[in-house]
Amino acid sequence: MSTIEQPVEVDGDKLMQFVFRAVDEVGATLNAALVVLGDKLGLYRALAGAGPLAPAELAERTGTAERYVREWLNAQAAGGFVEYDPASGRYTLPPEQAVALTDPGSPAYLPGFFQLAVGSVLDSPRIIEAARTGAGLGWHEHGSDVFEGCERFFRPGYNANLISGWLPALDGVAGRLEAGARVADIGCGHGSSTILMAEAFPKSTFVGSDYHEGSIGTARQRAESAGVADRVRFEVAPASAYSGTQYDLVTMFDCLHDMGDPVGAARHVRGTLKPDGTWMIVEPRAGDRVEENLNPVGRAYYAFSTLLCTPASLSQDVGLALGAQAGEARIRDVIAAGGFTRFRRAAETPFNFVYEARP
Fold first, then answer.
1. Which pairing describes strands 247-253 and 232-236: parallel, antiparallel, or unpaired?
2. Beta bridge pairs of residue 124
3. Which CATH architecture has domain 116-358?
4. Lower Cβ count inside 10 Å, N or C end of the chain?
């Protein structure tokens, strides 16, 4: 006997509330590209501290076309990124926005976050096809905005926390680094974390590794520019096969969840550490249950996980696909499966959890 489905009653007011929310979402999506545009063209930097400017003045200061600048400014004003004075027709970048959009030394610096988002969206057609089959998409297959944006997003957090907070939170590690330690930085990307530690601890030696050859090339150039090439070496290698043994400290920054075989990587770390060595794992902040992550930070991380992290893991052997919101319990399981007996959360920020693992 067939059943007759009852029509679902739709609340018209709730429908329109969602429609207008969706309009806001589209505006936010488009604004990510406009933030990248403003960053790359120097529009925010020209506005910072300049007081009210007319579109023509901003265009002249940045060598850009006034008609584009006028539309860009209006979009920024509609989104609350700049302030508009109807009486004068001029636009001002508030000091708080100036810090977030123009000061790379601030932990609140955001252009890299937007650049990473735009790069991820540009690659979304390939993720659509991968999602049909369950295939992966390797990190190396993305465009330059993903690589550059990722490093620019995470670097301010490392600058603000790594030396002053995260390393001192580990048991005895800061003292070892000051005296002279052997350190391996796995999944180092462009080498920001490696170089930062090398600058802070000149008696220690560092090996940074990443499977992406292009990123390692950039890291080597930056080590030379920073004057730390005498104590930093970079190599192209996966997490399960980086070179060296008897390390006092192994670090992984925001990359364990991207790996196809994080347990295999954990076993390799265990085999390369000294018996009293330490593994520091920095991972995106996440609760163990989905409902704990239904917030703005979790939303962004789930989105990046869909477009970047999960496809990266699925493109590798094993393809465990922890995801960017794996949570502490799953990370603990991976670490334990790798042969570590001690594990704790040592520090945290609004964006990261820092874990300490010991054999």
1. unpaired
2. none
3. 3-Layer(aba) Sandwich (3.40)
4. N
CA atoms within 13 A on the CB side of 44: 25
Residue 176 clears pLDDT 80, i.e. is over it: yes
Is there a contact between 359 and 273 (Cβ–Cβ < 8 Å)? yes
Determine the average pLDDT of the residues in 204-227.
97
Q: Nearest-CA neighbor of 91 among 45, 50, 41, 31?
A: 50
Q: How far apart are CA 310 and CA 315, in angstroms?
A: 9
Burial tier of 303 (Cβ tally within 10 Å: 0-12, 13-18, 19+): middle
- The pLDDT value recorded for residue 8 is 83
- The residues spanned by each domain of the chain are 12-103, 116-358
* Residue with the two structure tokens 């996440």: 286
Domain 12-103 fold is Arc Repressor Mutant, subunit A (1.10.10)
pTM for this structure?
0.92
Q: Which tens digit of pLDDT belongs to each residue from 253-295?
A: 999 999 999 999 999 999 999 999 999 999 999 999 999 999 9
Rounded to the nearest integer, the mean pLDDT of the chain is 96
d(CA 254, CA 283): 5
